[in-house]
Amino acid sequence: MRDITVFSGGAHPRLAADICSHLGTRPHPARVTRFANDCLEVQLPANCRERDVFIIQPLVPPVQENLVELLLMLDAARGASAARTTVVMPHYAYARSDKKDAPRISIGGRLVADLLVTAGADRVLTMALHSPQVHGFFSVPVDHLHALRELAAYFRRYDLSGTVVVSPDLGYAKQAAAFARLLGVGVAMGAKQRLSDDRVVIGSVIGDVAGRDVIVVDDEIARGTTVLELLDRLRELGAGSVRVACTHGLFAAGAVERIGGRPEVEEIVCTDTVPLPEAGPGSGLHVLSVAPAFAEAMRRIHDGESVSALFDAP
């Protein structure tokens, strides 16, 4: 069997180290040189020839910088005769650009998928894509993990009688329903309309939330505008305490403080798919590790075993 070699980009070295710790190997950080004309050069510091290569690099801010670094790492691995190269991309930022909903706009999710394959990706391992159709943008195999089991295991510590899971919009309703089944509770969802990147309106909540404790679950939280709008509707409908959960905690523009500062919010739970900003004291942020899930998926890919047990809908 071919040896496994893991390279990490500069986007999230801590997660790469944690994944490799569970794999029983060590990551090889790529050497990145920036020239006077602002161009980048990448050198992979370990042998790739006929190896099973994994490159760990989430697309997180600065997204364009990390994307180019990933493309150069793929090109370097292909040029070094890697037997197979798998992109381990815990967060795919361009997944939100998945449709043409205005005239003359780009569909970045498809374009970046093509770029990754052209640069040398033979396989992609990712988590919680923003929408299911993004999977089809890739012309190579994609293993699509989710963090619902990790989140459910965390929330089972609480008394969930009288609790309901709420999705902020209909687009995440299927995943929210699966999460609710794992917890054995009911599900509700918001009717959301996005007016711009930082402005949303939730006109109503479909389902019974009055007098019930709520777990709000979504795939990612960036500025937090959707969650804050949903909190307003939940308060108007007489919901009780609120816990907020997501897979990708981007938390831009002070989102942790703004969400955690609401009196009804008891805690915010996310995973470590992206590097997390420093949260102030009393923010109530709790971070779950997805390193074991990624390490097991990588082991199964390397050994030619099924990965479906890790990402099939519960």
UniProtKB/TrEMBL annotation:
SMART domains: Pribosyltran_N (SM01400). GO terms for molecular function: ATP binding; kinase activity; magnesium ion binding; ribose phosphate diphosphokinase activity. Gene3D superfamilies: 3.40.50.2020. It comes from the Bacteria. It is an enzyme of class 2 (transferase). Residues 5-120 form the Ribose-phosphate pyrophosphokinase N-terminal domain. One of its GO terms (cellular component) is cytoplasm. GO terms for biological process: 5-phosphoribose 1-diphosphate biosynthetic process; purine nucleotide biosynthetic process. Its EC number is 2.7.6.1. Pfam families: Pribosyl_synth, Pribosyltran_N. It catalyses: D-ribose 5-phosphate + ATP = 5-phospho-alpha-D-ribose 1-diphosphate + AMP + H(+). Keywords: ATP-binding, Kinase, Magnesium, Metal-binding, Nucleotide biosynthesis, Nucleotide-binding, Transferase. This is ribose-phosphate diphosphokinase.
